[in-house]
Every structure is written in structure tokens, then in C-alpha cells.
């Protein structure tokens, strides 16, 4: 499979999500209303993305044009919702716009995130991100160097892992050493 | 009510108005405090960036690591502040997080921007962005394909240009054709 094909398949996944996902009206939806800055998009439930998350998560693609080499998306996590463990061959950036969440690299303590935080996720680092148990969480994500290939997924962040997090106040990203 | 009482009430009204007004008149820094999501950074005044802007503008670099090929920065414009006309050889993305502003491509009407809007700026398109006359404006910017070269600058958006904008409700970016 060529890198271009992988990128196209990734985009196809997102497109299918738009086609099949329905706007779920639920308590969680209205709970999120005030926190949302970028469009909420669709609940991943029932879409090809569903298997990559735990809990209620909404994804809206913001930038898909290949010109920019920066697929960008808004992700909103309900309380306790999170991605699976995964990695990006070309890295990823997260820009946190509301709520509180976590970012954890495999084998490291979790970093507590809040509005205004930026996370630099190096290529091939296995990690997850998501909301705290008490807060919704919203970030813009940018997949960097998308030509390096699609994200790889490594299974759920289990309840046991999530409920026994060690939280650090240190920041993981290189940016924070500036 | 005696004239004296009326006079005293009138004086009290003026005093309260004065106190209230004084409370509302603030320097640009504190005016921006509540709108800021990402770090405000430094006023470009006195920096090498100063010549590329009109008005009070604050810039904070968010991502500088070459690994990501996505130099990212938060820009906060005070009311009426704006970039000069410029273009990016590799394009640029803007993610609007607060306030109201404009994006205009040369020869086109200006697009009115608000929180949650995304602008895709194609390579080599001459454009500017900045605040409306009545609102501060904050966006995260990402320079895409930075290897294509540095931004080129083409001089001020003059007061005459700024004060005679034609505003469109159409969105300029390709994203909006999705």
C-alpha cells in the first residue's frame, strides 16, 4: 500500500464517518454546547472511528486539502472519554481549547491539560489523550508530516489504566524546554 | 425633591458614570485578558515583527520544533490591528479562537471571521488578516510546508483599504466546499 493510498484510505474513513454518523441528541450533547469553540461534528459511535475511542467522542474534520499536508480536526471528549493507545509516524500537534484532559506517553506519567496548552507528540511515540473523569475536553489536532503514513492503533486505554493514572505537572513536550 | 437634592443626585450619577467608565477604560493588555485562550506572548512593538503589522499585536510561538514542519503561533490583535499584505510559499492555516476579524485575499471581498472559523490560505496568495474595528481577535496560525520558504511581505493594509472593506458572507477557503 503506498503512502498516498494510506492517506486516501484515512480520508475515506473520515468521509464514511460523515455519511453514516448521525447527530446524536443526548444529555452529553447539550452538556458540551457551551464548551464548544470549533464545530462539534459527529459522534464517532457507529463510524469507522468508533473502535479507536472509549466513551462519547465527537470529531469534525477542519482541514482535509492535501495542499497543506496538515490534516486538522476538532475532537470533543465527554467526561472520561479517550482515544486508544496509538502513534503517528509523522507526529501530531494538539491545541487545547477548552475543558481538562490528559496526555500520556507509554511508560510515562500523564500530563494534565487545560485550555491553552499545546502538546507536541513526536513521531512513533505510543500515547493517548482524552478527558478527565470530571470535565469535557476539546482540542484541535494536526497530523504532521502525513506522508509518513497513517496512525497505528494499539488497543484500549483500560479502565484500570485510566483509573490509576499518575499525573505529573511536568510537561512532556520539547516545546516546554524552550 | 429639592433642586439641591436633584443636583446631588445628578452629581452622584456623574460620579458613578465616571467610576464605571474608568473601570472600563483599560490599557490594551487588560482589555485582552479575558479573551485569551493561548498564551498572549509579547507585543510585536520593538521586535523585528513590528514592521509586518499595523496596531497592537501580540505573538506567542507555540510550536518551533522542526520535527513537525508546522511552525505554529498564537496571534492576538487589538481592535483595528492587522497584518500587512503578505503571502506564504507553502500556505497557512488559521484557527480562530476568539473575537471577530477579517481575512481578505487581494482583489476579493473580505471574509468576516469569528470564533470557530478556519481559514485555508493557499500557497502564494496575497492576503491579510486582523481584527474588526470593534473587537479584538485571536487565532492560532500554522505555517504549512515551511520548507517552501519564508513569507513575503507587500506593505501595509492602509486605513483607506481597511475603512472601505467589502465584506462577504461567502467563505473563501476550499474547506467550505466540503
Give the overall shape of chain A, derived from the CA principal axes: globular
Number of strands of chain A: 13
Oligomer: homodimer
| Rounded average pLDDT of chain A | 84
What percentage of residues of chain A falls in helices of 4 or more residues? 10-25%
The description of the largest β-sheet of chain A is:
9 strands, mixed
Identify the CATH homologous superfamily of chain A. Jelly Rolls
Please trace the helix and strand order of chain A, writing H or E for each element: HHEEEEEEEEEEEEHE
Number of domains of chain A: 1
Q: In CATH terms, what is the fold-level topology of chain A?
A: Jelly Rolls
Overview of this protein structure:
2 copies of one chain form a homodimer. Helices cover 16% and strands 34% of the residues of chain A. Chain A is of the alpha+beta class and 178 residues long. Chain A has one domain (3-158): Jelly Rolls, CATH 2.60.120.10. In chain A, strands 1, 3, 4, 7, 8, 9, 10, 11 and 13 form a 9-stranded mixed sheet that branches. A two-stranded antiparallel ribbon of chain A has the order 2-5. In chain A, strands 6-12 form a two-stranded antiparallel ribbon. In chain A, a hairpin with a 4-residue loop joins β7 and β8 (110-114). The longest helix of chain A has 18 residues, at 3-20.
Amino acid at each position: 500500500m503506498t503512502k498516498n493510498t494510506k492517506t486516501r484510505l484515512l480520508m475515506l474513513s473520515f468521509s464514511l464517518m460523515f455519511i453514516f454518523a448521525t447527530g446524536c441528541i443526548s444529555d452529553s450533547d447539550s452538556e458540551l454546547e457551551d464548551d464548544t469553540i470549533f464545530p462539534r461534528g459527529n459522534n464517532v459511535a457507529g463510524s469507522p472511528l468508533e473502535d479507536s475511542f472509549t466513551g462519547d467522542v465527537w470529531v469534525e474534520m477542519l482541514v482535509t486539502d492535501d495542499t497543506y499536508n496538515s490534516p486538522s480536526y476538532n475532537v470533543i471528549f465527554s467526561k472520561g472519554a479517550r482515544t486508544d493507545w496509538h502513534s503517528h509516524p509523522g507526529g501530531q500537534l494538539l491545541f487545547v481549547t477548552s475543558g481538562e484532559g490528559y496526555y500520556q506517553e507509554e511508560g510515562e506519567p500523564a500530563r494534565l491539560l487545560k485550555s491553552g496548552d499545546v502538546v507536541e507528540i513526536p513521531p512513533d511515540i505510543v500515547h493517548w489523550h482524552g478527558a478527565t473523569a470530571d470535565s469535557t475536553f476539546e482540542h484541535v489536532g494536526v497530523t504532521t508530516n502525513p506522508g509518513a503514513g497513517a496512525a497505528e492503533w494499539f488497543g484500549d486505554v483500560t479502565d484500570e489504566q485510566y483509573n490509576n493514572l499518575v499525573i505529573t505537572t511536568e510537561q512532556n513536550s520539547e516545546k516546554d524546554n524552550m
